[in-house]
Amino acid sequence: MSDPTAHHVGITVSDLDRAVAFYTEVFDLDVVAEFSVGGEAFADAVDVAGASAAFAHLDADGVRVELVEYDPAGEPMPERSLDRAGATHLGLSVGDVEAFHDDLDPAVETLSEPRTTESGTTILFVRDPDGNLVEVLDA
Q1: Which CATH class is domain 89-138?
Q2: Which residues belong to any copy of the VOC domain (predicted)?
Q3: Domain with residues 9-71, CATH architecture
Q4: Angle in degrees, CA 92, 107, 67, rounded to 5
């Protein structure tokens, strides 16, 4: 068996254009690829009958963030808290969490003000337009 290496972090969204706008505007990520995939092999691989999807890959300082919009779209997941098994989040570091928070558009939902944890790390959680959690932490 070969040694695995990380390729991307995937996030399913309901509106790809809206999600791309959020991640490029709020986090200044660059779009590095946009493409669509469909066909029987794809539908079988994702176990969604007749599925096709539009993708955008964004660069987060060497980590590829994959945004994907499926057709047909599945049911939205109920809002989850981080303490539940299966909960996921994307972690992005910034130079100064407090300054990042101060510059956020008021329309961006946050779970709280920035907080410094027992480990000394300052963190802030925000939600993207689909409710996906993004942890923002000091670099």
Answers
A1: alpha beta
A2: 5-139
A3: Roll (3.10)
A4: 45
Write the DSSP string, 52-103.
EEEEEEEEETTEEEEEEEEES--PPPPP--TTSTT--EEEEEES-HHHHHHH
DSSP classification of residue 23:
H
Task: Establish whether domains 9-71 and 89-138 are of one fold.
Answer: yes
Cα-Cα-Cα-Cα torsion 54, 55, 56, 62, nearest 10 degrees, comes to 180
- Only one residue has tokens 């993708």, namely 55
Secondary structure of residue 40 in the 3-state scheme: helix
Per-residue model confidence as pLDDT tens digits over 58-69: 999 999 999 999
